[in-house]
Design goal:
- The complex is a heterodimer.
- Chain A has five helices and five strands.
- Chain A is 35% helix and 15% strand.
- In chain A, helix 3 packs across helix 4.
- Chain A is of the alpha+beta class.
- Chain A has a five-stranded mixed β-sheet, sandwiched between helices.
- Chain A has two domains: 74 residues, Beta-grasp domain (Ubiquitin-like (UB roll)); 73 residues, DNA polymerase, domain 1 (Orthogonal Bundle).
- The longest helix of chain A is centred in the C-terminal third of the chain and has 14 residues.
- Chain B is α+β, with helices and mostly antiparallel strands.
- Chain B folds into three domains: 197 residues, Aldehyde Oxidoreductase, domain 4, CATH 3.30.365; 158 residues, Aldehyde oxidase/xanthine dehydrogenase, molybdopterin binding domain (Aldehyde Oxidoreductase, domain 4, 2-Layer Sandwich), CATH 3.30.365; 336 residues, Aldehyde oxidase/xanthine dehydrogenase, molybdopterin binding domain (Aldehyde Oxidoreductase, domain 4, 2-Layer Sandwich), CATH 3.30.365.
- Chain B contains 20 helices and 31 strands.
- In chain B, the strands form eight sheets. In chain B, strands 11-12-9-19-16-17-18 form a seven-stranded mixed β-sheet. In chain B, strands 14, 15, 20, 21, 22 and 23 form a six-stranded mixed β-sheet that branches.
- Chain B starts with a helix and ends with a helix.
- The chains are: A alpha+beta, B alpha+beta.
- Chains A and B meet through helix 2, helix 3, helix 4 and helix 5 of A and helix 7, helix 9 and helix 18 of B.
- Chain B: Keywords: Signal.
- Chain B: GO terms for molecular function: oxidoreductase activity.
- Chain B: This is Isoquinoline 1-oxidoreductase subunit beta.
- Chain B: It comes from Sphingobium ummariense RL-3.
- Chain B: It holds the Pfam family MoCoBD_2.
C-alpha cells in the first residue's frame, strides 16, 4: 500500500505494509537513520519525532496512521529558529557522550520549546522524562534547554 | 647501529609517502612505563594534506568515553599544530599496526599518555629536521607552532605541508631522544574540547554501527534458547520462510559458549522489521535440560546455606584473625548482597558482515576488536588475516562491547550467504536477555574493633559464582581489597555457586559492587567505634604507604586517598552535616579503582517514601593533568548518575528455569532526568601520571548514598536495589 506523507517539508510516498512503524519506514524505506531504535516499546524515547508538530514515538506509530501527516525528524530539526538554538546549545555544552539517545532528546526538547518557550525546571523534567540517556547526560540536557530558551540556568 | 637494532627501530617508526602528496607517519612507539613487560606497540597515523590540514587517526573505539577526541589531542599537542587544523578519523582494527585498541578499564589514558605524545613528537622532529636541512641551520635553533617551522634567527617560516615530502625521506628519530613538552607549554592538553562527532550527532548524521548500510544488505534477527546454553532440537523453518519479506531462514550450530555462539535460528529479510515480525511465526524446540535448574531463588537458597558455613577457599589471610576477634572490644557483623544487572546500552547489540571469497569484512561496535577477530577466526575456521574489522561509533559501551558475541553471530550468518552483506540487530528484549551480566554476590562481613576504637581485624566471606574452583568473569574479589594491607588481621575467603548466566564487565567491574558493600559495612564499623567513616578512613590512611597492586599497575598511595577525602569533606561541609533537618542526611564513601582515587558525599532526603538525592560532591585524583576537562567532568557526572541508578532505579536481573525474566526498560529501568541531582566535581592534582576517567567516579556514589540514607532514616541498606519497603519496615 502506498502511503503519502511529508517528511521535513518534502512530500514522500512509501509503498509498504501500513502496520510498519514510522521508525522503520524512516530508517529503511527513506534512508533517514538519524531517528534511533532503542526499545521498540515507547519506553526510551530514542525514536522521538514530531507528527504534525506533536512529539511521538516513531516505534509506536504505524505508518498507516500518519498518512497525510507532516513529520519532522532530527534531520530537519535545525530548520526552525528554536531547532537552531537547541543544536547550538547542544554543541556549545557538548551534551552528548555516546550520543545515541540525543536525536530523541533534541526532538523532545524542540517540542517543549515550541509549546513552552520559557520552560521552568518542572516543565523540563516533565517534557524530558520519557527520554532515557544511558550515559546520563541529564545535567547538560537541562542546562542546554535553558540556554536555548534564554532562561537563567 | 646493528642490523638488529635498526630493524627494531624500523618496527617502531617508519615513514612513507602517501599517494596524493600527503605524508603518512606510521609511528610505533613502545610503552615507556613497562620496561620489563613485552613492548606494547602503538601506531598513530598522521597525514598532512597540501593545505596544511592534518588528519589524525584515532585508534580506540568511541563509546562515549571521549577517546576519539582525546588521543588525537595528545598527538596534536606534541606535533605542535593548531586544533583547528586537525581532522580526526577512526582507524580500523589491527593491533599489529596500531597497537592495543581495547577501550576498557579506564586504561586508555595511562597506557597512551607517553607513547601517543611521543608519536606526535616524533613526527614533529622529522618535520623540523627537514626544515633544518633545507635552511642549513641546526635543528635545535628552530621552533614550531600552528603547523609551521620557524627560524627565529632569520624570521623565515615554512608550513608542515611544504616540508612533508622531505620529512618522509628522513630517518625516523629514536623515541628515546625525543623531548616531550613541558606541561606549562601545553596549548591543547588541558583545554576543554568538545567531542569530535558532537555536531554530526546533533544533526542526526549516520555514525553508529546500527546506521551502517551496504548495497544489497539483508537484516537478520537471531533466536536462541531463552535458557542460556540450551541447544536447538527442531524448528518450523519452512513456515518462517513463507512469511512476508523473508529471504533466508538459517540454523546456527553453536559451541555452547555465550562469548562466541549458542545454537540459533536466524531470519533474514530486506527489512529488519519484517525479519523480526516473521519471528512471531517461529516455533523452535530447545533442549534446555542441562540448564533449567538455574534460578535466582536457587542462588538465594544456596547462598543462605553457605553463608554460615565454611568457605571453599581463602583469597587472602594475614595475621591472626581468630585471636583478633577473640580479643576485640567490639565485633560488628553484617550480611550484604546485590543482584545481577544488565548493561542495557541504548544502541542494541548489532554488527554487519560480508563474507566473500574466503574472507570476511566486519563493521563492528566493539570495545575489544582483536578478541572478536580471534573468536570469528575460530568459529569460521579462517586465518585471522582474512578478517577485516572496521570500527564504528558505539551507542554506549559500559563493558558490554568488550564481548563480541554479536560479531561471531553475524559472521556465522554471513558465512552461509556468501556475497550478501548482513546486519544482525538485537531487539531490546534480546539485548537484555542475552547480556553478560554484572554478577550477583553475597558478603558475610565481620570486623573487630580494639579498646582504642581502632579496626583490628576484617573478615569477608564472599559468596560468588564460579566453576572449576575459579570465579567466573568479573566475579572475583581482589586479595588487595581494602582494608587489606592497612590492618594486620585480614581474612577474605570465597565460596562458589554454579550458574549458567553469562557474566561480564560492567563499568567499574567488581568495584561497582564491592565499593557498595565494603564502604557501607565500614560505615557501620565506624559508627560502632564512635566515629564517622571519613575519620576511620583517614586513620587507616594515616601512615604513608605505597601498597603494591601488581599487573604493572602503580601502587596505591595512601597520601592520595587522604587528599581526596579531605577535599570532599571541605566541599560538602561534612562537619556541618548535623545541622541538616530531620529526615535528611549526608553520607560519605571513598573508593580506589582504575588507578583513580575518589571520595564522594551524597545528600539525600526521603520523598514519597523513596530516596531523593539532592546533591553529590565528588573529589577525584587522577594525577597531574586533566587532559580534556569538559570530558572528565562529563564522565564524573555520568558515573554518579549511573551509580545512583544501580541503587535506586530498580535494576535487578532475575532468572527462572535458566532464563532471564526482564526484557525491556519497564522491568530493567534506568535513571531519568527528574532523578538528576546537583553534582559538584573537583580534581586534586598530584604529581603522578594521568589516569582514566571512564569508571572510577562510579563506585563510591552507591555506598555514599546508603550511608546518607542511614544518616537520614536510621536504616541500614544492605542489599540492592533500594525499594520503598526498606523504609517502612
Amino acid at each position: 500500500m502506498a502511503v503519502e506523507l511529508t517528511v521535513n517539508g518534502r512530500k514522500r510516498s512509501v509503498d509498504t505494509d501500513p502496520a510498519k512503524p514510522l521508525l522503520w519506514v524512516l530508517r529503511e524505506d527513506l534512508d533517514m537513520v538519524g531517528t534511533k531504535f532503542g526499545c521498540g516499546a515507547g519506553l526510551c524515547g530514542a525514536c522521538t519525532v514530531h507528527v504534525d508538530g506533536a512529539p511521538a514515538r516513531a516505534c509506536q506509530t504505524a505508518i498507516g496512521e500518519v498518512a497525510g501527516s507532516a513529520i519532522t525528524t532530527i534531520e530537519g530539526a535545525a530548520a526552525s529558529p528554536a531547532g537552531q538554538r537547541i543544536a547550538a546549545a547542544w554543541v556549545a555544552q557538548d551534551v552528548p557522550q555516546c550520543g545515541y539517545c540525543q536525536a530523541g532528546q533534541i526532538m523532545s526538547a524542540l517540542a517543549l520549546l515550541n509549546q513552552t518557550p520559557k520552560p521552568t525546571d518542572a516543565d523540563i523534567d516533565a517534557a524530558m522524562a520519557g527520554n532515557l540517556c544511558r550515559c546520563s547526560t541529564y545535567v547538560r540536557i537541562r542546562s542546554a534547554i535553558k540556554a536555548a530558551a534564554g532562561v537563567v540556568a | 647501529m646493528s642490523d638488529q637494532a635498526l630493524l627494531s627501530r624500523r618496527r617502531f617508526i617508519s615513514a612513507s609517502l602517501l599517494a596524493g602528496g600527503g605524508l603518512l607517519f606510521d609511528l610505533n612507539v613502545p610503552l615507556a612505563q613497562a620496561a620489563d613487560a613485552p613492548p606494547v606497540i602503538l601506531t598513530a597515523f598522521i597525514r598532512i594534506l597540501p593545505d596544511n590540514r592534518v588528519i589524525i587517526g584515532a585508534k580506540n573505539a568511541e563509546v562515549g568515553q571521549g577517546a576519539k577526541t582525546m588521543l588525537p589531542m595528545l598527538i596534536a599537542e606534541e606535533l605542535d599544530v593548531d586544533w583547528s587544523q586537525v581532522t580526526i578519523e577512526q582507524t580500523h582494527a589491527d593491533q599489529a599496526v596500531f597497537g592495543g585498541q581495547t577501550a576498557g578499564g579506564s586504561r586508555t589514558t595511562p597506557r597512551e599518555w607517553v607513547p601517543t605524545r611521543r608519536a606526535g613528537a616524533a613526527a614533529r622532529a622529522m618535520l623540523v629536521a627537514a626544515a633544518a636541512a633545507q635552511w642549513k641551520v641546526p635543528a635545535e635553533t628552530l621552533k614550531t607552532g600552528a603547523g609551521k617551522v620557524t627560524d627565529p634567527a632569520s624570521g623565515r617560516s615554512i608550513t608542515y605541508a611544504a616540508l612533508a615530502q622531505a620529512a618522509a625521506k628522513l630517518p625516523a628519530p629514536d623515541p628515546a631522544t625525543l623531548t616531550l613538552k613541558d606541561p606549562a607549554a601545553f596549548r591543547i592538553i588541558g583545554r576543554s574540547i568538545g567531542g569530535v562527532d558532537t555536531p554530526a550527532i546533533v544533526a542526526g548524521k549516520p555514525l553508529y554501527s546500527i546506521d551502517f548500510k551496504l548495497p544489497g544488505m539483508l537484516y537478520a534477527v537471531l533466536e536462541t534458547c531463552p535458557a542460556f546454553g540450551g541447544t536447538l532440537k527442531s524448528a518450523n523453518l519452512d513456515e518462517v520462510r513463507a512469511q512476508p519479506g523473508v529471504r533466508h531462514v538459517l540454523t546456527l550450530k553453536g559451541d555452547g559458549q555465550a562469548e562466541s555462539l549458542y545454537d540459533g535460528v536466524a531470519i533474514l529479510s530486506e527489512s529488519w522489521w519484517s525479519a523480526n515480525k516473521a519471528r512471531e511465526a517461529l516455533k523452535a524446540e530447545w533442549d534446555d535440560s542441562a540448564v533449567r535448574g538455574f534460578s535466582t531463588d536457587g542462588y538465594d537458597r544456596q547462598a543462605a546455606t553457605r553463608r554460615g558455613g565454611k568457605a571453599d577457599a581463602d583469597i587472602v589471610r594475614t595475621g591472626d584473625v581468630d585471636a583478633a576477634f577473640a580479643g576485640a572490644a567490639k565485633v560488628v557483623k553484617a550480611d550484604y548482597s546485590y543482584p545481577f544487572i544488565a548493561h542495557a546500552t541504548l544502541e542494541p547489540q548489532n554488527c554487519t558482515a560480508l563474507f566473500k571469497d574466503g574472507a570476511i569484512e566486519i563493521w563492528a561496535p566493539s570495545q575489544n576488536p582483536e578478541n572478536g577477530r580471534a573468536l570469528v577466526a575460530k568459529a569460521l575456521n579462517l586465518p585471522p588475516e582474512k578478517i577485516r574489522i572496521n570500527l564504528m561509533r558505539i551507542g554506549g559501551g559500559f563493558g558490554r562491547r568488550l564481548m563480541n558475541d554479536y560479531m561471531v553471530q553475524v559472521a556465522a550468518i554471513a558465512a552461509q550467504v556468501p556475497g550478501t552483506p548482513v546486519k544482525l540487530l538485537f531487539t531490546r528484549q534480546d539485548d537484555i536477555r542475552r547480556d553478560f551480566y554484572r554478577p550477583a554476590a553475597w558478603h558475610g562481613f565481620r570486623a573487630a574493633i580494639g579498646k582504642d576504637g581502632a579496626l583490628t581485624a576484617f573478615h569477608d566471606h564472599f559468596i560468588t559464582f564460579g566453576r572449576d574452583g575459579k570465579p567466573v568473569r568479573s566475579a572475583e574479589l581482589s586479595a588487595t581489597e581494602l582494608p587489606a594491607g592497612l590492618i594486620p588481621n585480614i581474612l577474605l575467603e570465597q565460596s562458589l555457586l554454579e550458574t549458567n548466566m553469562p557474566t561480564g564487565w560492567l563499568r567499574a567491574p567488581g568495584s561497582n559492587a564491592i565499593a557498595f558493600v565494603t564502604q557501607a559495612f565500614l560505615d557501620e564499623v565506624a559508627e560502632a567505634a564512635g566515629k564517622d567513616l571519613p575519620t576511620l578512613m583517614l586513620e587507616l590512611f594515616a601512615t604513608p604507604h605505597e601498597l603494591p597492586r601488581g599487573n604493572n599497575a602503580p601502587p596505591f598511595v595512601t597520601a592520595r586517598a587522604k587528599g581526596v577525602i579531605e577535599k570532599v569533606c571541605a566541599m560538602a561541609n561534612w562537619q556541618g552535616r548535623k545541622a541538616l533537618p530531620k529526615g535528611q542526611g549526608k553520607g560519605f564513601a571513598f573508593y580506589y579503582s582504575h588507578m583513580g582515587y575518589f571520595a564522594e558525599v551524597v545528600e539525600v532526603a526521603l520523598a514519597d517514601g523513596m530516596p531523593q538525592v539532592k546533591t553529590v560532591w565528588v573529589a577525584g585524583d587522577v594525577g597531574s593533568q586533566i587532559i580534556n576537562p569538559i570530558n572528565a567532568l562529563h564522565q564524573a557526572q555520568g558515573s554518579v548518575i549511573e551509580g545512583l541508578g544501580q541503587a535506586l532505579a530498580g535494576q535487578k536481573i532475575t532468572q527462572v528455569a535458566g532464563a532471564v525474566e526482564q526484557a525491556n526498560f519497564d522491568t530493567h529501568p534506568l535513571q531519568r532526568i527528574p532523578d538528576t541531582p546537583a553534582i559538584h566535581v573537583e580534581f586534586v592534582k598530584t604529581d603522578y601520571p594521568p589516569t582514566g576517567m571512564g569508571e572510577p567516579a562510579l563506585p563510591p556514589v552507591i555506598p555514599a548514598l546508603v550511608n546518607a540514607l542511614h544518616a537520614a532514616t536510621g536504616k541500614r541498606i544492605r542489599t540492592l536495589p533500594i525499594v520503598p519497603e526498606m523504609f517502612t519496615a
